[in-house]
Amino acid sequence: MPAIVYKLIPQDPFFELPEELVVPFEQKMKTINDDNRLEITERVQFIDAGEEFHGICCPFCDAALDPMWWHQKMAAFYARTHGFYDLTVTTPCCEQSTSLNELVYDWPQGFASVSVQTTHEASLPILKEAALELTGVPWRWVKARYEVFD
Ligand SMILES: [Zn+2]
Q1: Residue 136, exposed/middle/buried by CB under 10 A (0-12, 13-18, 19+)?
Q2: CA 107 to ligand 1 centroid distance, Å
Q3: Between 124-135 and 22-32, two packed helices, what is the crossing angle to 10 degrees?
Q4: All CATH 3.30.70 domain ranges in the chain, comma separated
């Protein structure tokens, strides 16, 4: 049976939740649904769509990007700095400078060190609004699907 998980991430991949906001932020998210989960990692991670990663396109010319090119970029960033501290790339199709976070992922995916995971589809607008209100920065959703085996 497939499971859908929604992951709320800041639009800026390098946004960090200020120390004093961690507890109120988590409390607010749990007030909306008590099983919402706040995840904070030391380093910026790729926030994936689970089984629904179908391709990547260039945000400038719409060309489909070679998954191998993307994997090499991901591996190179990680090898150089042991984390994603810089996501700057030049698109291979039209040679524009951009960020791995700005590529067009199908389904939408991104990078973040803070995320809120929820399974409550009805709560998506209110969670996003609450995150914006508490932090003052815009957030967006990554929708993921996982196969669940029992
Ligand atoms: Zn391009």
Answers
A1: exposed
A2: 19
A3: 160
A4: 1-52+108-150
What topology is assigned to 1-52+108-150 in CATH? Alpha-Beta Plaits (3.30.70)
pLDDT tens per residue across span 117-148: 999 999 999 999 999 999 999 999 999 999 88
pTM above 0.85, yes or no: yes
Give the Å distance between the CA of 45 and the centre of ligand 1.
24
Q: How far is the CA of 56 from the centre of ligand 1 (A)?
A: 11
Q: How far is the CA of 125 from the centre of ligand 1 (A)?
A: 32
Which two three-digit tokens encode residue 99? Answer: 């960020």
At 121, list the tokens.
Answer: 């589809």
